[in-house]
Design brief:
Layout lengths: L5 E3 L6 E3 L10 E2 L5 E2 L11 H36 L1
Antiparallel strand pairs: 1-2, 3-4
Bound molecules: zinc ion (ZN).
Length: 84
């Protein structure tokens, strides 16, 4: 059975049994406090712990990042309009 196979978490490297989670969207800070936004392969899976620790917050973080960028782009467009 596919779900009884031992899988290796692509984030922490630990082996686990079960379906695993899609790690897409995971993000974390490195030891210097810089945000890491890794890309994952299609067959990558992560364990439940990393899902809760990096994937769920990472997706929220990336969403906020996109919103900030959109806001910034909008602000810049506005500045360009009023520059003349
Ligand atoms: Zn893990």
């Amino acid at each position: 059975m596919e779900d009884n196979k031992i899988k290796k978490c692509c984030i922490c490297g630990r082996e686990f049994v079960g379906y695993g989670n899609n790690p897409d969207g995971a993000a974390w800070m490195d030891q210097f406090g810089r945000p890491q936004l890794p890309e994952f392969k299609e067959d990558d899976v992560c364990c439940d712990e990393c899902d809760g620790m990096y994937v769920v917050p990472g997706r929220i973080y990336r969403m906020r990042l996109r919103q900030e960028e959109a806001k910034k782009a909008k602000g810049e467009a506005k500045n360009a309009e009023t520059a003349d």
